[in-house]
Design brief:
3 copies of one chain form a homotrimer. The first copy, chain A, is an alpha+beta fold and 350 residues long. Chain A folds into 2 domains: 8-118, Rieske Iron-sulfur Protein; 129-337, Naphthalene 1,2-dioxygenase Alpha Subunit, Chain A, domain 1 (Alpha-Beta Complex). The first copy, chain A, contains 7 helices and 18 strands. In chain A, strands 12-18-17-16-15-14-13 form a 7-stranded antiparallel sheet. A 4-stranded antiparallel sheet of chain A has the order 2-3-4-9, with no helix packed on it. A 4-stranded antiparallel sheet of chain A has the order 5-6-7-8, with no helix packed on it. In chain A, a hairpin with a 2-residue loop joins strand 5 (58-60) and strand 6 (63-65). The longest helix of chain A is centred in the C-terminal third of the chain and has 31 residues, at 281-311. Chains in contact: A-B, A-C, B-C. Chain A binds chain B through residues 29, 45-46, 48-53, 56-57, 65-70, 82-85, 90, and chain B through 149, 153, 155-156, 158-160, 171-172, 174, 300-301, 304-305, 307-309, 311-312, 315, 317-318, 320-323.
Chain lengths: 350, 350, 350
């Protein structure tokens, strides 16, 4: 189940340079290119002439030229020209609104007239110079909602990431889940614990003693359609945890954008925005590389879980307190999906 | 949609030497072997005993011996013998008429009693010593009719083969399409143009100045079930083009036999017969190698086009004037197919 | 068609050491592990919490710990514990009875209450110190019944194994097939023949002159659900063949356990128990390696046969006298399967 009338992360700005860029999102093959002003646009990756993928062609003067017989598409999906042809009656390609923001290209796969750039989420970590960001992309052969479940229940860290960010105390601390408007929040605090290896590395980069006891927090926020931002960090014990003064803590936001490709695969844009050593590119690279290794562990589990669920399609799963974050997020997606279907029905009957 | 009561190219004579040769044509696994006189024959690649592919066995005294339990098949598909068995009541394998001609093995996948070797096309380039031939084989994961479309509309050369045989002038010259009995002909003439790189190479091999202006022609002929012969060449400008005297032109026939494997794949036997430097094997190899590289570009486009069409099965394509060659060829296939179905019905009711 | 209420070979004891071991048998993903006493057990490879494969986790104190969120399964498939959860109402996983015997782990995929270790077959070669065993495992993409056919008709040796155990005389000697209770027996004797290469090697290892004429025997026994034991050997001619004194013969049992994975694939546990040079590990290795190469030839034929049958699903095969062993074995499987279905119906109506 995919929400269509939403902004999704499609790719990075560098992916769309001087050549067309193909990616299938929400089961729709799309091709991204830049118009004459350098503004990114997206259209169906299908030439209306003979059906070849337009992404095999090239970009010329802001138009996308089919690599088979030279049909030229304008940025809005209309046919601009074709050698020796009158094209005014040619059908248009579907066009998908796009916005370039926060270091990503965002796409709206649904009804274009509903696409409002103002509806894009606001991310302080992406605009405030007090933060530094690094990240990557994984293609995951699993329903994007399995990744939401994963990110909204961090008890898995004790098992999946035992050598980096997992620790016994995660299991032992109950989690609290709240739904506030269209956001689901799960949070967990571990006080007076030893920092796990990843956070010891961060403490060192910050100039803190990695052996000190800390208060550790994890606050996961789900927003429709499929973004999870996780406020994480450790503060020297007794300084107020998340609210401790900057010099006593290391704080980051784990950034997760999951864009469905098919019902059982998605593009996973992962990253971390941090508040320490923000000028130091080597720290960015060390954090990115460490996070990449950790998230590859999730990828392996989720793909195995998807295959296992495919083999057992009627089997009911347990829904425990620790699962509440995922359950509430799926409920929110379902609610928005029902609304989208109802509204599509209204449009159809209008 | 495949025509069955037709001669198709199956393989090259060398493919069927002293061992059985397996190939699936028109969704039928076939095995080719030579009888005691060296005559090629083809039967179903399925042992009537336990169903193993007969092509895993060997040929002995002109019989095909199953590699599992030793059943021996005669050239006509009947069971000749089997150790310690009386085989007279064993069912026969289907047998497919074959002819070895023009450097190919031809097969008739349909009703054997209708197979008439006289119905094979006549190819002057294959029998006249004034021509030299070289070619190759590609397996293409696309409907064979996409290749017919491709070959009957050479405007694609400007885009797909920009660096070898494409040139801007192709786009700029209109194409004429005619249907004459069971042949579709599309032709285009470009006068007073510079030769593209491939033809410059040919002019040099002929001893002509490659920088001279030329008249270039392309005459594509489609014959059922799936052959496209393209008369191509360049003549020094003002000498009559295609009709110029031999010493002022380089002329060739692009030879294309497409034999369906499945509805979305085919065997593409491509080659070129030329009239210059016909004794020079190094020219044959240079032409063959150049053509192989050019046709690999078509292969890439067509396979992408097939995947794209598979994802958009209900979508209508445009049919422009440049597409008339392919459209008429498909119409001819459809007409012959309707006749084949009607005639099969008559046989069934007789 | 699989019999479910039967003992099948699942794996070797070494496969289940200190980590969980996953294998799909009879279309059921299973995970094998050892309880606190070292006794092997098998349960569904599916975590009742979120559906991840349990085999990705680890074994701790004889419990299987899920690698995603730490649910712990006891050896009987019940949930033993989970961090911060009360698990008494959690559903149990299906549990599959297992027995470790004869150097294999046996599993009962059907109704657990019917599993009787006494029903395991008795194998003299596995318990008598006068025998030595070596073997291996192949994954074969073919219906397990095609392997039964193969092993119950050794005329294929002349064709498939021409260079090792095949010989012309196999073809020339008729085979006798008997059904005795729930066992099918096919036997063939070749008197006064030259030993083929494999048996010449065995004769040398035994200290016999490999060039002597021999009496050769092959007695194939099929037992439900899918085991074939083949008593094979050669004796110096005129000494009574199979009943010759030990010093005049080399005798072995070809051991074949086929455990279905899917309708068109199986796990093939092959091996050979021999009576000569039983203390000599280098002979074990030479025999094992030779047999592995020979049986790889069967694998290639059977996988090709399966693909060929898949393409011709309605085609009838021949059933000759040489096929009687396979035909009778399939008939026995069918009879037991009918009984199993009837008995399942009774249980359902009880």
């Amino acid at each position: 189940m995919f929400l269509k009338n939403q902004w999704y992360v499609a790719c990075r700005p560098d992916d769309v340079a001087d050549r067309p860029f193909a990616r299938t999102l929400l089961e729709q093959p799309m091709v991204f290119f830049r118009d004459a002003l350098g503004v990114v646009t997206a259209v169906e990756d299908f030439c209306p002439h003979r059906g070849a993928p337009l992404s095999l062609g090239f970009v010329d003067s802001g138009q996308l030229v089919c690599g088979y017989h030279g049909l030229r598409l304008a940025a809005d999906g209309s046919v601009a020209s074709m050698p020796k042809q009158r094209v005014h009656s040619f059908p248009c390609n579907r066009h998908f609104p796009t916005v370039e923001r926060y270091g990503f290209i965002w796409v709206w796969p649904g009804e274009p007239t509903l696409a409002d750039p103002e509806a894009l989420p606001k991310f302080n970590w992406a605009t405030d110079p007090g933060w530094a960001y690094g990240g990557g992309l994984y293609h995951v052969r699993a329903d994007y909602r399995l990744m939401i479940d994963n990110l909204m229940d961090l008890t898995h860290e004790t098992y999946v990431h035992a050598s980096s960010i997992g620790q016994r105390e995660i299991d032992e601390q109950p989690v609290r889940t709240k739904v506030i408007d269209e956001t689901v929040v799960t949070s967990r605090v571990m006080e007076n614990v030893k920092a796990p290896p990843f956070w010891q590395m961060a403490m060192e980069q910050r100039g803190l003693d990695p052996e000190s006891l800390v208060d550790r927090w994890q606050v996961c926020q789900f927003h429709a359609p499929s973004h999870v931002m996780i406020d994480v960090g450790v503060a020297l014990a007794g300084n107020g945890g998340m609210d401790a003064p900057d010099e006593a803590k290391v704080r980051a936001v784990v950034v997760d954008f999951m864009t469905p490709e098919t019902p059982t695969s998605h593009w996973y844009f992962w990253g971390m925005a941090r508040t320490w050593a923000v000028e130091d590119a080597s720290v960015t690279e060390a954090v990115r590389s460490g996070q990449g290794a950790i998230f590859a562990e999730d990828l392996a589990i989720l793909e195995a879980q998807q295959r296992s669920l495919d083999l057992n399609p009627t089997r009911k799963l347990l829904m425990l307190d620790i699962d509440a974050g995922g359950v509430q997020s799926r409920r929110l997606i379902q609610k928005l999906w029902d609304a989208e279907q109802a509204s599509a029905g209204e449009v159809a009957h209008a």
